[in-house]
Amino acid sequence: xxxxxxxxxxxxxxxxxxxxxxxxxxxxxxxxxxxxxxxxxxxxxxxxxxxxxxxxxxxxxxxxxxxxxxxxxxxxxxxxxxxxxxxxxxxxxxxxxxxxxxxxxxxxxxxxxxxxxxxxxxxxxxxxxxxxxxxxxxxxxxxxxxxxxxxxxxxxxxxxxxxxxxxxxxxxxxxxxxxxxxxxxxxxxxxxxxxxxxxxxxxxxxxxxxxxxxxxxxxxxxxxxxxxxxxxxxxxxxxxxxxxxxxxxxxxxxxxxxxxxxxxxxxxxxxxxxxxxxxxxxxxxxxxxxxxxxxxxxxxxxxxxxxxxxxxxxxxxxxxxxxxxxxxxxxxxxxxxxxxxxxxxxxxxxxxxxxxxxxxxxxxxxxxxxxxxxxx
Amino acid sequence: xxxxxxxxxxxxxxxxxxxxxxxxxxxxxxxxxxxxxxxxxxxxxxxxxxxxxxxxxxxxxxxxxxxxxxxxxxxxxxxxxxxxxxxxxxxxxxxxxxxxxxxxxxxxxxxxxxxxxxxxxxxxxxxxxxxxxxxxxxxx
Lengths: 376, 140
Prior knowledge:
The complex is a heterodimer of chains A (376) and B (140).
Chain A: E1 10-15, H1 19-32, E2 37-42, H2 45-54, E3 59-62, H3 73-81, E4 87-91, H4 96-104, E5 109-112, H5 118-167, H6 173-203, E6 212-215, H7 216-233, E7 237-240, E8 248-251, H8 253-269, E9 276-284, E10 287-294, H9 328-338, E11 342-348, E12 352-360
Chain B: E1 18-22, H1 26-38, E2 43-47, H2 50-57, E3 64-67, H3 76-83, E4 94-98, H4 103-111, E5 116-119, H5 127-139
Parallel strand pairs in B: 1-2, 1-3, 3-4, 4-5
Helix pairs in contact in B: 2-3
């Protein structure tokens, strides 16, 4: 917060590999408004991150063309190091798609170098700071609320789960059924709180992922085993085909399992009673692929474009009432893309749907299974 | 409320029986205690603050300590730091039980010397198993 009596210098971190461009900008800003800005120019992301770690800045101006980072990974690194500081992409590239993408990755503004008059830069920085302040308030609010919700939920879910799991056998059937319903809904509420936190992180551009090379088989098996009970609730069986044990992927294990759980629970929800959901994992066209197939109603064509959007659920025209806020697939897509993978689906309405994830193959070359190729 | 066993120098890790659970939310303490006793068959001593835990643990050696992170006055990490100054607790694993489980937060707990982290809301039927895994990892 600026002190009331002292004029507040706007502390700018300029990350720009061209020394002449940096000097030019410094000259423009300092000349037009001598006691307004305090600019600190650096030429590499390494230097920038060190300074962001040590000092406070009001705004970051980031060139996309740096020697030590590619594309938006520099933006992500800045966001991870200083999550509360607004970032303006400062670039010579006029490209509308790139601009939209930068904003989607959580940049506050996109400024073209050759249009950057002192007034335009000043305005952009003021707006970026304001916008970031509102975003920070929103994130803090969501974080506070979700923590406050989780505290009573821990007691509620713990109590209901313990009765349901270990203490319900002597209860009248109606009571034990009501406990079961309350327990399932407390789980649903817990998932919803988690989803809302995830959405906020995705929208502010810094979903922290812990990427490591992991064996695929145990991750998929774990996800399937943990969701059998949920599927059984819908009278649905999960069938897991054998997975080659040497396949490796580079993922955040808990987030990857979360995405699989999402696909599995969706498949169970949309399956007919006594249906079966098939899970396949292996190498497909040089990529690691995991697919989840159900034999439910499928996805109507008009819903195809929106299915991975936020708050999207095919409307209630589906015969069965299906719960959920429509956040799961949106979160899954963002997570898988942040793991350098892709997510998609194939569906024939009336015959079911196959949702798939594809990730780069990280299997050590010597161990690549030559024979395990999928035909289709 | 059951008591953790008296301070006795034990050479072998033995079995997991006595657990001290520290949380400022009385309801969570009560539910966690019941889960650990009913499902796991453990004996659980509850403490409503870091300070209370230090008093209880001054003369006792439980087999494992479960610590909440966000508590008024003395928070979980501060409590852990104090516990680590007590030589008779050097061979007792400490796990955090918390709703704050961002990867960076989990890393910081492990760096402080925690053996494991149990996310809240915990699964009441799995809690005992998770606690046992942490205990086994410590003695493994």
